Amino acid sequence: MRELFATLPDDPPPLPPGYLDTVLTRGRRSVRRRRIGTAAVWAVVVLVLAVLVVPGVPLPVQTAAPSAKPSLPDRFAGYSMLTSTVAKAPPGRAIALFGYGNGETFNMFQSLVVGADGDTYRQVDAMEERDRPSALLAPDGSRVLLGDDRGATADLILVDLTSGKRRLIPLGNPVGVRLLAWSPDGRHVAYSAAPLVGYDEFGTVEGEVVRTGTLRLLDLSTGGSTEVPAIKPAWTAAFAPDGRRLAVQVGQEAHLIDLDGREYGSVPIPSGRELAADVGWSPDGSYLATVPWLANGPFNGTTGGETDHDSFMYEIGDVEFVPVTETGTPPAPVQDVARLLGWRSAGSVVVATVNDAGHASLVEVQLGTGTRRTLSRFDTGSTCELGMQNCQIFDLHLATGLLSDLAVRSAGRPQRGPWPVLLNAAVGVVVLGAAFLVWRRTRSSTRHRGPEVA
Length: 454
Known about the structure:
This protein is of the alpha+beta class. It is built from 5 helices and 25 strands. This is WD40-like Beta Propeller Repeat.
């Protein structure tokens, strides 16, 4: 080092004119560029957070106000793990309630409601907590009622879709429950209940209730239930359009009763068929709609057919009409039906259909002429189980009281509500971590490069 310094001249050469000013200027320019780069990085971070995280932040949610006309999207959105729940973000009144998903490899099912006033999708978390039992959607789409398919239960759960709140309705001693029908005025629910002494081969309560269940009428305004001992075993029912009468099938006969349990008549149901659950009485009161037994299960014979409402929609049948009085002339049967879902009027019904490829649709059918109009389609593509399986539809219900005024809207971007807190945190950590690494790299490269000199 001494020898190296010894070679240096005693007097260093003079600096170029204006050299110090140039170094200071370019040093300041380097600082500015570093600061601008850092600001740009953080601007990108803020933009990414706004795009990715803000939609998932649980901001105060205002329930969609009912529009002048309820509507149905012309296409239901596909499966999404980011769909929020009724409790976290109440959706308002719903047009549809259904199970959606697949369990071929992973058990990935959702119990969903779809808004009647917008493209709102929510999971019914109360149903998820009870392992997705069969449930009923109120005729006006404002509430969901559910029991428990896993075993005896001491209460029903009434979920308010406009507030997200739950109400427990006590049943007394624990019983196996099967919900049957909801009255058009929204006040009464018919269900079948039985002391649970066994399960069917699939581990649910339905088999025992179908064999031994007694009809009960629940008054939602008081929470009290009235047992009708003469109607046993009750396995399917439908209210009359006035809400003050009820048809309940036992064996191959539909018993016509009032809300006090008094029977005033009966209608024979053809062999091998059953009263369409919840929606089987026509709006003009003239006919009962019947469908084939959906499965040749263990309940066939003298006790009737297995309704199979929680199974995927794949079996195709028809709808036949039986006159309530001997003077009526029923319409011609409706063919190629997976589910009867409700009535638009006395002369048209809404049904679910499934084509050869397994794609489900909602179709309006004019009675008499058989004219069909597709109202909506379900996304049943390979979006379930992480993109490895087709999605399946089951336990589908429509808000029957909204169908007469129903419009069809063009489906927009699904509004699925706030993301889960853990997902928000994970996305935030990843974005901030990436921003920090970019900032460190930018700072390090600037420091090593040093100020620019001419």
